[in-house]
Write a structure and sequence with these properties.
The complex is a heterodimer.
Chain A: E1 3-13, E2 19-29, E3 33-37, H1 44-51, E4 59-64, E5 67-68, H2 73-78, E6 80-83, H3 95-105, H4 110-123, H5 139-150, E7 157-161, H6 169-186, E8 189-194, H7 197-203, E9 206-211, E10 214-219, H8 221-227, E11 231-237, H9 243-251, E12 255-261, E13 264-269, H10 272-285, E14 290-296, H11 300-308, H12 315-333
Parallel strand pairs in A: 3-8, 3-9, 6-7, 7-8
Antiparallel strand pairs in A: 1-2, 1-4, 4-5, 9-10, 11-13, 11-14, 12-13
Helix pairs in contact in A: 3-4, 3-5
Chain B: H1 2-21, H2 24-44, H3 47-51, H4 55-60, H5 63-81, H6 88-109, H7 111-118, H8 120-126, H9 131-160, H10 169-194, H11 200-216, H12 229-235, H13 239-251, H14 259-288
Helix pairs in contact in B: 1-9, 2-6, 2-9, 6-9, 6-10, 6-13, 9-10, 9-14, 10-13, 10-14, 13-14
Classes of the chains: A alpha/beta, B mainly alpha.
Bound molecules: adenosine-5'-triphosphate (ATP) and magnesium ion.
The site of magnesium ion (MG) has 4 residues of chain A, from α1.
């Protein structure tokens, strides 16, 4: 498969000396939803800004569909739709006018634009509010408007910087729905940054965990979790577990370790969901009754803590960002 | 290529004008200051009034003295205001039209700071448009606003006593063009000064720093001939002076207007504006680069 984005050894040192990216390398396949997961200040926005040609890398390479962002920024811009972290709608214009303006800036022909604007507005459920000034919109409506505007020129690559920051769970889920639909129906490649674990897990086929400007791990959410030590199958049996049974469990292909405590058998496994049926039929054959069976998967949060030694988000952080989000909107409502 | 360029500028100018006309308050607020000047200088200190001799004095003088006095008076007026038929109110009100365009141009040039602050500028910077379009659209919309504001002020000044005597269609077009050029140069100046800042305060300071001094160092309130020579020197590179000259020549002087001096004033204004515009665009584009 060809690459939508190819990043090699990318570094960014801001004037003032902050090294926001310390040489990161990754690529994004066409048609993929790629997640950049990391805490505040990790370098997520910096990465997207470089891809979107808003800032220049200090060194290293970034290519979008094979085009270098530093040498041909104009060409790269045409292929990208970017929803920036800070909402930047024009509040004095209506929702419709905001998208119309975007269409004109991306050189979408007038008749085509007119049709697409209404399609997008209806997809984002903004039809009714379309003729209202954006200053009357809620935070969620603004995000949806930004998303709609970013899609007006049917970009091949969509960059979403914390697309659900500060939104309540319902709105968040509906935005996830739109992103999934876009990716499935139009084949749009998506790179999204987030520090919501669920968001990365729900949407992305692959996730890069980024912290202090470095990529700590990269892979599908499952792979990442497997790397941490894989999954655990927990069994409660109507049987006195003895060493003989333990030996039998240990000899099963794919079982990495067996621990028994309080009559509960814990099997560390690489691929537990395909292993479990095997084990069930094996125990059935031995006439051992299973009372309960679970597969326990470590969360990405566990992976993150393991890799960075800190939590992805604490209450403090989330309150602060909520505040930032609100202030941003208030500033613009004035 | 060229079509895209024009399309971009068009779209961005559309945005600015949409916002401008959607907010009549700004239009009204901006007109207040020049209107105050008109009231203060034009009505309160009516300079022409100072030179008028009361009728009872005139009646007591022998006719040949009256003739001499009135000839002298006409000479003085012609020397000061360019024509004996111009009264001071009309003189300064036309000057204020230039000031109006000047203010509107400056405030138009400041709107980029707001875009930077709200993050809208970043959205423009990631769009496939030329940097020149961003800068030029600010300037063009600012000069369009200048024209609208000046026309509005003209409509208000007429019932207050501004006596129009247009010198013909050509000169009137020339005066429209000069208001546009003045708006363009002032917005270019403001844009390049404020391009990097996010702070409204910086802009206000810059505005006040440029505003009043340039107004007083021009012929909008009083004729250049009564200025001290150092002030005359500033006034003669001040685009306000030339705009005011062109406005007076083409709107007040009727048939006595000199086409050649109109054209030479316009040529100088065009020269000054070109310099402002060239430097303004170049500096602003550099200012749009990453800090
Ligand atoms: N314009 C700038 N000048 C100097 N330092 C900057 C600038 N922008 C970001 N930084 C610094 O670079 C680092 C990475 O910032 P970045 O915005 O990329 O993080 P992020 O992962 O997007 O964080 P968040 O979740 O808070 O959005 C931070 O330490 C930040 O302070
Ligand atoms: Mg960020």
């Amino acid at each position: 498969m060809s690459k939508a984005v190819n990043i090699e050894n990318l570094r960014k040192i801001y004037p003032g000396g902050v090294e926001a990216l310390k040489g990161i390398t990754f690529d994004v396949d066409e048609g993929e939803v790629f997640g950049l997961l990391g805490p505040n200040g990790a370098g997520k926005t910096t990465t997207l800004n470089i891809i979107a040609t808003l800032i220049k890398p200090t060194s290293g390479k970034a290519e979008v569909f094979g085009i270098d962002v530093s040498s041909k920024p104009g060409l790269v811009r045409r292929n990208i739709g970017y929803v920036l972290q800070d909402i930047a709608t024009d509040d004095e214009l209506t929702g419709y006018e905001n998208i119309l303006l975007q269409a004109r800036l991306y050189h979408v022909p007038r008749e085509k634009a007119e049709k697409r604007i209404w399609e997008l507005l209806s997809m984002m459920e903004l039809e009714e509010a379309a003729r209202r000034k954006v200053e009357t919109y809620s935070g969620g409506m603004r995000r949806r408007l930004e998303l709609a505007a970013a899609l007006i020129h049917e970009p091949k690559l969509l960059l979403l910087d914390e697309p659900t920051l500060g939104l309540d769970p319902n709105v968040r889920r509906s935005i996830w729905g739109y992103i999934r639909r876009l990716n499935k129906e139009l084949g749009t490649t998506v790179i999204l940054t987030t520090h919501y674990i669920e968001e990365a897990e729900e949407l992305s086929s692959r996730v890069a965990i980024i912290d202090y400007g470095e990529i700590k791990a990269l892979g599908s959410p499952r792979e990442l979790k497997a790397k941490l030590g894989g999954e655990v199958i927990e069994l409660r049996l109507d049987y006195i577990v003895n060493d003989q049974l333990r030996n039998i469990f240990e000899s099963i292909d794919g079982v990495l370790g067996v621990t028994i405590s309080d009559g509960v058998v814990r099997l560390k496994a690489v691929n537990s969901s395909s292993l479990l049926p095997q084990i069930i039929s094996f125990l059935n054959a031995k006439n051992i009754k299973i009372l309960e069976a679970f597969i326990k998967t470590p969360s990405l949060e566990d992976v993150f803590v393991e890799l960075t030694g800190r939590k992805l988000r604490d209450e403090e952080g989330s309150r602060e960002e909520m505040f930032r989000f609100r202030r941003n909107i208030q500033l613009r409502r004035r | 290529m060229v079509r895209e360029f024009i399309g971009e500028i068009n779209a961005l100018v559309w945005r600015e004008l949409k916002k401008f006309f959607g907010n009549p308050w700004i239009i009204v607020m901006m007109i207040i200051q020049p209107l105050l000047w008109i009231g203060l200088f034009g009505k309160a200190f009516n300079l022409t009034g100072l030179f008028t001799i009361p009728p009872e004095v005139l009646n007591n003088l022998p006719p040949y003295v009256t003739q001499q006095v009135s000839a002298l008076f006409n000479q003085m007026m012609a020397r000061l205001f360019g024509s004996s038929s111009i009264d001071y109110f009309s003189f300064m009100a036309t000057g204020m039209l230039a000031v109006m365009a000047f203010f509107a141009g400056m405030s138009g040039g400041m709107s980029l700071t707001w875009d930077r602050r709200t993050g809208y500028l970043n959205k423009l910077l990631v769009a496939p448009i030329r940097r020149e379009s961003i800068v030029l659209s600010k300037m063009i919309s600012a000069s369009m606003r200048s024209l609208v504001q000046a026309s509005l002020l003209l409509l208000i000044a007429m019932p207050l006593g501004l006596k129009l005597s247009p010198a013909g269609i050509g000169p009137v077009l020339l005066s429209i063009a000069s208001l546009f050029l003045l708006g363009l140069s002032m917005s270019a100046l403001m844009l390049m000064i404020t391009i990097r800042t996010r702070r409204q305060e910086t802009q206000m300071m810059a505005m006040n720093l440029i505003n009043l001094p340039l107004m007083f160092a021009s012929n909008v309130l009083y004729p250049k001939s009564i200025m001290p020579s150092w002030l005359q020197a500033i006034a003669s590179v001040n685009p306000l002076t030339y705009t005011a000259n062109i406005l007076r020549g083409s709107l007040l002087m009727g048939s006595s207007a000199s086409m050649s001096s109109l054209l030479s004033d316009f040529a100088i204004l065009l020269g000054i504006s070109t310099v402002f515009l060239g430097i303004g665009i170049a500096v602003s584009i550099v200012g749009l680069r990453e800090k």
